[in-house]
Amino acid sequence: MLPAIRRELEKICGAPLPALWLQLIAEYPTELRLARRSDDDSDDEEGCVGDAELLADPADILALNREVRATPIPDAHNREFLWPARYVVIGESGDGDYYCINADDPDCGVYQFLHLQVRFKRLTSGFSEFLEMLVDAYLDFDDDVANSEDMT
């Protein structure tokens, strides 16, 4: 990650970024960067896991973190929700939710921001568990598709 992007993210969240997450971004798994999000081989701009669920490009991470903090989000009671400073957006679900880590959590537990409920739900207690979840969802899916095509 470029030092300028890292400094900007740390400024935005008011804390140093977790070393575990920084290491992953520096050594982003190639298999996740290339893993397709759908089985139809569409070439939309968010066709791979690294383009959405776990952003691979630090510039995209910075842009998304700026975006969620740009304006308050109204909740169901029409109150304004402001994005918590320490929550760093690391990806998107594709249906309006965000995946985040807490800059204060050295284990990098991953949270999902549920945009319709305007609340956070803890998905995993550590970052490695989140990576396993992505591998299971997308790489096993790719293997299943390849195996089913071999049978035809």
Task: Write a structural description.
This protein is α+β, with helices and mostly antiparallel strands. The chain has one domain: SMI1/KNR4-like, CATH 3.40.1580. The chain has helices at 3-13, 19-26, 30-34, 58-70, 127-150; strands spanning 73-74, 80-81, 87-92, 98-102, 110-114, 119-124. The strands form two sheets. Strands 3-4-5-6 form a four-stranded antiparallel sheet. Strands 1-2 form a two-stranded antiparallel sheet. Helix 1 (3-13) runs parallel beside helix 4.
Domain count, please report it: 1
- Poorly predicted parts: 142-152
Helicity range of the residues? Answer: 40-55%
Q: In this structure, how is the largest beta sheet organized? A: 4 strands, antiparallel
Provide the structure class. alpha+beta
* CATH-defined fold name: SMI1/KNR4-like
Which word captures the global form? globular
Q: How many helix segments?
A: 5
Strand order of the largest sheet: 3-4-5-6
Measured on Cα atoms, how large is the radius of gyration? 16 Å
Spell out the blueprint of helices and strands.
Blueprint: H1 3-13, H2 19-26, H3 30-34, H4 58-70, E1 73-74, E2 80-81, E3 87-92, E4 98-102, E5 110-114, E6 119-124, H5 127-150
Antiparallel strand pairs: 1-2, 3-4, 4-5, 5-6
Helix pairs in contact: 1-4
